[in-house]
Every structure is written in structure tokens, then in C-alpha cells.
Amino acid sequence: MSNRLPQLIQGEFRQSGTDTWIPVTNPATGEVLCEAPAATADEMERAIAAAKAAFLEWREVPVSERARLMLRYQHLLKERHDDIARVLAKETGKVFADAKGDVWRGIEVVEHAANIASLMMGETVENVARGIDSHSWTQPLGVCAGITPFNFPAMIPLWMFPMAIACGNSFVLKPSEQDPMTPNLLAELFLEAGAPKNLLQVVHGGKTQVDTLLTHPEIKAVSFVGSVPVGQHVYRTATDHLKRAQCFAGAKNHMVVMPDARKDQVLSNLVGSACGAAGQRCMAISVAVFVGESKQWVDELKDQFAAVRPGAWDDDQAAYGPQISAKARERILTLIRQGKEEGATCLLDGSECTVDGLPDGHWVGPTLFTDVTPRMSLYQEEIFGPVLCCLCVDTLDEAIELVNNSPYGNGTSIFTANGAAARKFRHEIEVGQVGINVPIPVPLPFFSFTGWKGSFYGDQHAYGKQAVRFYTETKTVTSRWFDDDIPDATHGGPNMTINLK
Ligand code: NAD
């Protein structure tokens, strides 16, 4: 097979010696783009050992030099933005503008990582006792690992390795086996930006390779993004092996629509946030909760959904691309069938969707359900397709209760013209990322990506200050100096005491 994807191990892109190769396909055409290896045990061992050796040198590199590497990397990523997006679009099926967005959100994190010096500053307090001062330092952990999903093959690896490496760690990345070409290209550009060899290793594969990272004694911290069952497995296994872990998992995001909201904004934002990227976003809106009279807008929503169509990545008229695989499509169609059997009303069914000239694409058309109840599998399962479930309630309190009863807590939004309603929602909602008249409230990198409940296992989140805490240890030093030639204020100086009565 000619097009076999190499791995970045020990400073070079090398062909794997494995017997197991995983086909990577263009989901719009079925064409095999390349094959990704399932790294052998020896390759995993060599990657981790090389990362460990790199860490011992890298942690001594001044913070401003580490920051400059990120500046060069950011510059190169911007220069090659379109090239990366083209590779990404082919292997994910995302339409080009969306593929560019995936890369851009990653570039913003690299930009943030270039501020690492101020992010790593410790704290100091003078005179914690007479003549004694305390200060804290942030120090890197060692070799960190990242396991990433298929749906953002640029943004999510870039959430992880630039922040970890800027903090002084080295990194082993195991990207999704469904679209590993983009992460390889990101790694190639990292070397081109001047990254010392071995700081970043990229290995490919699936469960076996992930489990090696989760159990290996040299891996100090694990960052994971993916589905709920795998996230739970990763969190349990990594912490059982006494590692730090941050695991971002699945979601079911609700948009609450108040009757005083702007109808045009509600409808266009529902279409974009439910169907964009074929619904394969962890912050996609998959449930619309219409409060009171806003339920009258559902018919118009149906017309707007019906006007949207999927297509190939380079089709300017396409709103979104195919599902990532035949298996993913089949899963969505099963949930649509179950929704109908369980009594939901399907206003628009995208199960039979086809795209001219692309008979082998994994297409699902925009799909709209009403009369959905919280007991239905359609409501309970993460669908991860262009499917919107509509529910109607009478009051804002009922809407809040519905959202808070969901086991997930990644994102939510409210559309309203009433500040008091928005304030109540923002305050009472048990979800980590809240939009007010903003459908997909993904925080920029100077904040952190703060999913809650079943959408996140761990405590420190991705990027922002929380990532720096995740990828570093805090060392607190308390110091006192003695020198008879240098009298200080505590030697013979005032010795005032406080009367605590
Ligand atoms: P996935 O869980 O199938 O795969 C994620 C990673 O885990 C991949 O690298 C894969 O190789 C590996 N993996 C798969 N099965 C494994 C197993 N049994 N043991 C160990 N490792 C395994 O997820 P996916 O389908 O690639 O991505 C979609 C999911 O990711 C959705 O559930 C989505 O909500 C979620 N996601 C969440 C966020 C977030 O921030 N919360 C962001 C993006 C995606």
C-alpha cells in the first residue's frame, strides 16, 4: 500500500512496523485517503522514552524561548491555514469554511500559549512570619498524553500539546484513527517552527495504544476528548494509575427560546447550531425548548431546516458535510427510527438524503422532531447528527428544570429580550458554558472550556489558566536567611504584637 501514514517518533516521521493498518476515508466519497498504523508496543515505548528524555532538557529552556516557539508556530499555522483546512476537509468531510474555523480555533490557543510567562507566574507573600517569606513556583509535570476525537482534528490537539509544551512538558498525542492526517500535518509544522526534536510524539491507533498511555508510569497527565463511555474508561484507568486526568465527553445541549426573543435570530441560529458540521459538534444544539407562545415558530423552523442541504467540502452551496462514517450514519438513522416508534412527531426526516454525484457519502439530511419527551431515546442519547428535538414548556422555571435534569452539562443557551430572565437562567442553570442570545457559547482561550456534569470528568479544564494548572505542579517555598552582617528589621527592630482581644 503506497499511502501509509507515518508516526512522529524519536524526532522523525517514520513508517510503522505494525501488521494492523486502519483505512482513513473521505466520508463524502468513500475513497481511501491513506492507512493509519496501530502503533506497536515497541513504538509506543520508544515514543514515551524519547518524550521523557526531551522533557529533561526542555524544562530547563527559558520560558520566553518556549513562548517564542509558540509565536513561530502560530505564524506558520496562519500561513498554512488553507492547506491545513483542505486536508482536514477531505478527511472529515467538513465544508471548507467550517474546516477553516476548526483550524482557527486551534490557532487561537497557540496564540494564548505564547503568553505562557505571565500565565505561569506564582504568588508571593512577604513576612508570613518575622523575616520569613513564602512564594510559589509552577513547574512542569513530565510527559503528558493527549487522546483526541474525530470531530475537531485541528482544534482539539491544539487545545492540548501547545499548552502542555509551553508549560515545559513534553507530549505524546494519539489522535483519532478516523482523521489522523490533520494532526500529522500539525506536528510537521511544529517541527518546521523550530520545535526541538522529541518534544512532541504522534502515535496512531485505538484502544490498545490509549490503554498503554493510561497505564504507563512515565505518563504523568492525560487529556482526553471523546464519547462518554470512553471518557469514563479513560478517567477511571488514568486516575487508578495515579495520573492526572481531564476528560471532556459527550453532550446534549439545549437552547431555551423565550416568547420575547427575536424570532429571526432564534430560527437562523437553531438551523446553524443544530446542522452545522452535520451536528458533529460537542457544543451543537440538539434540543430546542420552546417556552409558552414561542412554540408557534416551529412551522417556520421546519421551512428553514428544509432549505438546508449537505454536500462536498468544496461545494459553496453546501451547509454542511457528511457524517464521519457509515457506522455513525447508521447509528443516527436507528435513533430517528426509534424516535418515531416511541411517539415523537418527525416533521422533517433526513434519513433518505442523497447528494448528486456522491452516492457513497454518509449523508443525513436535516431532521426535525416535535412532541419529544425526556423519556425517549431520541432525547436521552447523544445523536451527533443534524437532528433537532423540540420540546414545549409553559414557563422558564420548567425549562430550567428540564435542562438541569439532563445528565450532561456542556453548553446551553437562552434566547430572550428580558435581562431578568437571562440573569435567572445564567444563575440557576447547571451547565458549564452558557450563551445569552449566543447559540454555541465556546469560550475563547483566555477563558477555559468548562463543561460540567456528565460532559466532563476531572477538575481543571482545557486551555486558559486552568490548563496551566493542569499541566503544572505548584511548589511553595518558605524561606528565611541568616547573615550577621546584614541586620534586618526583625533583628533588634520593632517587635510589635497585636492585642487580639
Ligand atoms: P470516541 O470516544 O469514539 O474516540 C475518542 C478517542 O478515544 C479516539 O482517539 C479513539 O481512538 C479513542 N478510543 C475509542 N474507543 C476507545 C476505547 N474503547 N478505549 C480507549 N480509547 C478509545 O469519540 P469520537 O467518536 O471520536 O468523538 C465524538 C465524541 O466526542 C462525541 O461524544 C462528542 O460529544 C465528544 N466530544 C466532546 C467534546 C467536549 O469538549 N466535551 C469535544 C469534542 C467531541
Description of the structure:
- With 501 residues, the chain is an alpha/beta fold.
- It is 37% helix and 21% strand.
- The protein has 16 helices and 22 strands.
- The chain has helices at 41-58, 63-79, 81-92, 96-113, 116-119, 155-166, 181-192, 207-215, 228-240, 263-275, 298-306, 326-341, 377-380, 396-405, 419-428, 464-470, and strands at residues 7-9, 12-14, 21-25, 32-37, 124-129, 132-140, 143-147, 170-174, 200-202, 219-225, 244-248, 253-257, 285-291, 345-348, 367-370, 387-393, 408-409, 412-415, 434-436, 452-453, 456-457, 472-479.
- A seven-stranded mixed β-sheet has the order 14-15-16-13-12-18-19, with helices on both faces. Strands 9-8-7-10-11-21 form a six-stranded mixed β-sheet, with helices on both faces. Strands 5-6-22 form a three-stranded antiparallel β-sheet.
- α2 packs antiparallel against α4, α3 (81-92) packs across α4 and α10 packs across α11.
- Bound molecules: nicotinamide-adenine-dinucleotide.
- Nicotinamide-adenine-dinucleotide is lined by residues 147-152, 174, 176-177, 206-207, 210, 225-227, 230, 233, 248-251, 282, 382, 384, 410, 451, 455.
Biggest pleated sheet: 7 strands, mixed
Strand order of the largest sheet: 14-15-16-13-12-18-19
Low-confidence stretches: none
**What ligands are attached or bound here?**
nicotinamide-adenine-dinucleotide
- Principal-axis shape equals globular
Specify the structural class. Answer: alpha/beta
Number of helices: 16
The average pLDDT is 96
